[in-house]
Amino acid sequence: QKKVVKKTPKNVNSKTSFMIASVSKTVVWTALSMVYDAGLFKIDDSIDKVMPFKVRNPGHKSVPLTYRMLYAHTNGIKDEYGGYLFDTKCPANKPYTKSLATVILRHTKKKSNWYKFKPGETHKYTNYGTALAALLVERHTG
To answer: 58-61: which pairs have CB atoms within 8 A and are 24 or more residues apart?
Structure first.
């Protein structure tokens, strides 16, 4: 019989790090929805009100991103993994090397990381939308 996992098992304790990957999306969107339910924002509010910097598509600078655009994946931010550390590159048993705000700021300032469509007009799934939602939860709740 073939072994599915070929690595030697490790002991798990309270300091063991786990890569939870896409499972975190459920937690993030639930948390943002709880912030919404608490009345801390309206669905069509600009996210600029709570962000430490403006998040705008360089090709559509006059169009603020809204929470609705994040929920609907119509914000226009391209998925690109250059700012993420994942899999074996993710730090184990120590804090992530860059703040979430830093990763998002660096990514969203580059015109090449945005689709050409006006935010709110076209659906394109993006993991960065979830990262941005996580930062919004952080900003709203401290």
So the answer is: 58/109, 58/111, 58/114, 59/111, 59/114, 59/116, 60/118, 60/119
